[in-house]
Amino acid sequence: MPHLEMFGWFKLSFVMPYIFTAFTLALLGGIDSLLTSVVADNFTKTRHKPNKELIGQGIGNSVVAVFGGFRGAGAKIRAVININGGGSRPGYQG
After folding, report:
1. Mapping DSSP to helix (H, G, I), strand (E, B) and coil, where does residue 17 land?
2. Are 33 and 74 in contact (CB under 8 A)?
3. Three-state DSSP class for residue 75
4. What residues contact 58, with CB distance under 8 A and at least 6 apart?
């Protein structure tokens, strides 16, 4: 169930102390995701689209926060394991 009650009592003064911390964590998560994409690109000899990567990560993390989930970023080791296990790209059937 979405936790929408957080929007009812929202005041900007409540979150002002956390804006810098949130921005810092978002920046570090973005850098980590882009680094993961570069690692995957080196293994697959392809090129990722960084703008789509960051927009997708931002939308996903925003939606998961409404449902009380944990936000995340790219994981280099998981990407390497998936590629070595035969993964190539979404929807690929060959």
Report:
1. helix
2. yes
3. coil
4. 26
